[in-house]
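for the recovery benchmark. tokens below, seq after
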């Protein structure tokens, strides 16, 4: 034997350094990976992102079920295996934890973007703690129960944001459906074990179903106290402004913020004179084919008590825009003091990006031009669409052919279409605006008996100034029963009221 041993190579030195500084290296890699994913992650509804997660979950599930069936059997001998298979068995646990970490990292980012940090701090802290723990050797050495619990968490988090994307809405019913969909893969695996390997079902119940049930109960508890962020919605921008002006290019928002307050969006230090209105403008990202409502809550903080709700405004949103759906709320009746505006889902979950002001003071400000403005595209554009479901009751039917021949009346179909489209367009208009019908073309294609339901689907096909043209279709449970075109004209209520008053006065003189 030689007196000297050869110095370790570069790879050996790297392994030695990692073993001695495992915790520090894990933290550095975790922080670096988290920041990298925040900067590079694409849209939440990207087919590539969804497909990648499905592939990761499939690999993790396959590996863990293989480890489950290997329990109690002689350990595999990697030295006798082909190279690729030997590499898989040697690094299988590391691969599982790497993919689990990648999934948890992704969900932590999605939920972080979608939440108000203060409201969802507990849930996000739990995800981050799991991410950090997943990097440690001690955590990786824990049994299959913990690994299946992490896999169940990944399935539930994945379903919590994917199901609303395909459902096109968000709410309690959709959330419960997503929990059922997220629990299905592991529950199905346990059911298959019960049928194919009855002797292993007791073990599957302890290592698969029980951890899954605990995670599911935790998800439902977090949702009950409104700590689950409302994925896939997020607010990339929200600000306070003095005025909103509609131009040919879209919206122009003006503020008087000093240049050095670059971290503010608009006038969070709002200085008002009598008659000023406070405008809160936001961009809310929602996936393609998404159509739902959010509510804007205005809260005021008196000097002697906590935040008090002053107003709630419901806003219809549609998805698919790269920069997000544009919406705003206007407050004209307000008091001096501290205010806060929160944007929430209809089930009461706050979407990330609430904005507060240290004070909205009623004082006369100096006359000046807006120091900054930003242009936004109008939200009322061709392509936006909606639907409404109605019950064909007795009041909607003809009566002149007897009760057995009571069917959906054509004049009532026209009225239902008009009101459905009017309600839909209200979500895209400025305060004080409304629409009136100017044209209807309809083909009543089939009779719908009393008691059935009909669905009115409509879409904006053309916007020409204040004229909005919509195509519509009416379907019952069997077939299409109506279709046509409806045109509505945007009007200002105050001007319409004045014009009608003049017409009445002229008619009275005659």
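predicted aa per position
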């Amino acid at each position: 034997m030689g007196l000297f041993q050869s110095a370790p190579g570069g790879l050996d030195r790297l392994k030695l350094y990692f073993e001695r500084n495992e915790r520090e290296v894990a933290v550095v890699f975790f922080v670096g990976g988290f920041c990298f994913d925040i900067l590079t992650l694409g849209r939440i509804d990207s087919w590539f992102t969804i497909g990648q997660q499905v592939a990761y979950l499939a690999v993790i599930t396959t590996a863990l079920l293989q480890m489950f069936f290997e329990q109690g059997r002689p350990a595999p001998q990697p030295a006798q295996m082909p190279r690729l298979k030997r590499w898989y068995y040697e690094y299988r646990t590391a691969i599982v934890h790497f993919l689990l970490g990648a999934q948890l990292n992704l969900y932590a980012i999605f939920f972080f973007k979608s939440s108000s940090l203060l409201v969802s701090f507990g849930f996000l802290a739990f995800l981050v703690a799991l991410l950090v723990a997943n990097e440690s050797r001690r955590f990786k050495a824990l049994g299959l129960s913990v690994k299946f619990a992490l896999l169940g968490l990944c399935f539930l988090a994945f379903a919590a944001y994917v199901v609303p994307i395909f459902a096109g809405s968000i709410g309690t019913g959709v959330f419960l459906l997503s929990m059922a969909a997220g629990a299905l893969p592991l529950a199905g695996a346990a059911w298959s074990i019960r049928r194919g390997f009855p002797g292993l079902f007791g073990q599957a119940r302890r290592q698969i179903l029980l951890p899954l049930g605990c995670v599911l109960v935790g998800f439902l508890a977090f949702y009950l106290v409104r700590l689950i962020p409302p994925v896939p919605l997020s607010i990339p921008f929200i600000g306070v402004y003095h005025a909103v002006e509609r131009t040919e290019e879209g919206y122009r928002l003006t503020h008087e913020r000093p240049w050095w307050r670059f971290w503010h969006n608009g006038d969070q230090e709002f200085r008002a004179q009598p008659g000023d209105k406070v405008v809160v403008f936001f961009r809310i990202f929602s996936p393609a084919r998404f159509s739902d409502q959010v509510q804007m809550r205005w809260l005021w903080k008196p000097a002697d008590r906590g935040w008090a709700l002053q107003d709630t405004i419901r806003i219809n949103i549609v998805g698919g825009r790269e920069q997000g759906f544009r919406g705003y709320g206007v407050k004209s009746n307000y008091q001096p003091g501290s205010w806060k505006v929160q944007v929430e889902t209809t089930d009461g979950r706050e979407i990330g990006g609430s904005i507060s002001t240290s004070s909205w003071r009623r004082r006369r400000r100096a006359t000046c031009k807006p120091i900054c403005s930003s242009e936004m595209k109008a939200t009322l554009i061709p392509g936006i669409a909606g639907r409404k479901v109605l019950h064909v009751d007795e009041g909607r039917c003809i009566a002149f052919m007897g009760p057995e021949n009571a069917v959906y009346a054509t004049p009532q179909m026209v009225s239902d279409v008009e009101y459905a489209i009017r309600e839909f367009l209200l979500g895209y208009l400025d305060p004080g605006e409304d629409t009136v019908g100017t044209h209807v073309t309809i083909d009543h294609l089939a009779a719908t008996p009393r008691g059935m339901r009909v669905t009115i689907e409509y879409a904006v096909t053309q916007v020409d100034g204040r004229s909005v043209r919509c195509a519509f279709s009416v379907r019952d449970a069997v077939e299409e029963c109506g279709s046509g075109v409806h045109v509505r004209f945007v009007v200002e209520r105050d001007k319409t009221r004045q014009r009608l008053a003049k017409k009445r006065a002229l008619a009275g003189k005659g």
